[in-house]
Input
Amino acid sequence: MIAINPSAYIRFLNCLDGLDHMNPGKKLDATEEQLLNKITLAATQGKELLVGDLISLSELGSQATLHGRIKNLVAMGYVKLNEDKTDGRKKFVIPTTKAIKHYEHLSACLEKALKSG
Output
């Protein structure tokens, strides 16, 4: 077998795999990861997202599936829900410190992969 020099992306994936082994427990599934990405991107742009905005993302799944994944993100501590002051039926989805740390770990893996090339 021929040894292939791993690309930066492969080194990044290896680093992520190492993080997963260091932090055992429930992992985010692909849908939860995509939702968390959207929530965090919106927050960094100063935008507020409602639960309704997220469950309308039909390309990610059905409304029931997305609602369940949002509940999972809340239960795992990645996001919190804040009620709208004028309409209690509306809930804003906000990333927590745990979510920010998640992205800091991803950034560190990416930087490490790029430097070790």
User: Anything to note?
Assistant: The mean pLDDT is 88. The two ends are 22 Å apart (CA to CA).
